[in-house]
């Protein structure tokens, strides 16, 4: 699990327990998104969902919905269908969330893992929308199997900067770090979360970095910010020069006469043309910046720090 860092995006999660929320004040406090409780089990609909969804979106926050599961008593498909029926008329930016914790621990690990996968798959089938899973750090370590690693993780672990490791996920997309936070616009306590910037960009559409081509599947992260998508060619990762340059605030141009790219007016001699775009070695970029380059093969990411 990675630690929180300065590039993370601030989000919260709410239910009827937060009462009436002044979402304009929440947005002004620097909160960019909210997960809103929709349902629980097969019979509970959160009475504040509709108001929270409408007002949060109107205030400019990106939103998502979550469902509190009761696998110890209910069928996965029935709970999935109940959730989808409740949120079907509402636009969600973030993936739909399965919240699994509490009495779910009464279900044997293998059966619980299959139950969660069935819920996630059924919601995806019914909505055509991505899904993810929320759970506590200890719960993830003790009860959730590797099969669930195919879905993004929203992890809860309070009082730490880095959540506990578990054998199923290597990284989190969202990290709930306290249940007793305060935010202007909400009376009383509220859960505070941070979201990885790349995850936020992917689902919010805000300045989203997108692959140039189908082969660009490797994320290039510069100082904890997604800068580009690259590809592996003969053991070397190459990424589009324009993407990397613009992410660093540089001006990238192409000179047709010299057939050479320029960064802030300086020619770049070492490059490769791929499908008409100039690609450069990520290791060369790190060297140019005077930084360090590391490779995460499991998650297909290259990290540059300078």
TrEMBL record:
Keyword Acetylation: no
Alphabetized InterPro entries for the sequence: GH (IPR017853), Glyco_hydro_25 (IPR002053), Glyco_hydro_25_AS (IPR008270), Glyco_hydro_fam25_subgr (IPR018077), Mao_N_sf (IPR036582)
EC number annotated for this UniProt entry: 3.2.1.17
Entry annotated with the keyword Hydrolase: yes
Molecular function terms from GO: hydrolase activity
Catalytic activity: Hydrolysis of (1->4)-beta-linkages between N-acetylmuramic acid and N-acetyl-D-glucosamine residues in a peptidoglycan and between N-acetyl-D-glucosamine residues in chitodextrins
Keyword annotations of the record: Glycosidase, Hydrolase
Family: Belongs to the glycosyl hydrolase 25 family.
Protein name per UniProt: Lysozyme
Biological source species: Paenibacillus artemisiicola
């Amino acid at each position: 699990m990675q630690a929180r860092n300065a590039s993370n995006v601030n989000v919260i999660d709410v239910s009827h327990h937060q009462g009436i929320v002044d979402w304009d004040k929440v947005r002004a406090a620097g909160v960019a998104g909210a997960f809103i409780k929709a349902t629980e089990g097969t019979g509970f609909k959160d009475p504040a969902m509709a108001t929270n969804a409408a007002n949060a979106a109107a205030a400019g926050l990106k939103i998502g919905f979550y469902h509190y599961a009761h696998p110890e008593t209910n069928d996965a498909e029935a709970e999935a269908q109940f959730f989808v029926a409740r949120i079907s008329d509402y636009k969600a930016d973030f993936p739909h969330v399965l919240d699994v914790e509490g009495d779910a621990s009464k279900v044997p690990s293998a059966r619980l893992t299959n139950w969660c996968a069935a819920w996630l798959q059924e919601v995806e089938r019914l909505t055509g929308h991505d899904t993810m899973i929320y759970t506590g750090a200890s719960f993830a370590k003790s009860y959730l199997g590797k099969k669930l690693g195919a879905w993004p993780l929203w992890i809860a672990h309070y009082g730490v900067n880095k959540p506990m490791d578990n054998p199923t996920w290597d990284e989190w997309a969202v990290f709930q770090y306290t249940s007793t936070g305060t935010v202007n616009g909400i009376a009383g306590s509220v859960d505070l979360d941070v979201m990885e910037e790349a995850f936020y960009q992917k689902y919010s559409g805000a300045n989203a970095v997108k692959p140039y081509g189908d082969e660009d599947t490797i994320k290039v992260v510069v100082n904890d910010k997604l800068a580009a998508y690259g590809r592996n060619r003969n053991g070397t990762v190459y990424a589009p020069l324009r993407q990397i340059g613009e992410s660093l605030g540089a001006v990238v141009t192409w000179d047709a006469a010299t057939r050479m790219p320029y960064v802030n007016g300086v020619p770049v001699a070492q490059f490769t043309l791929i499908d008409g775009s100039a690609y450069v070695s990520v290791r060369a970029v790190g060297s140019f910046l005077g930084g360090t380059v590391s490779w995460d093969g499991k998650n297909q990411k290259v990290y540059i720090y300078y």
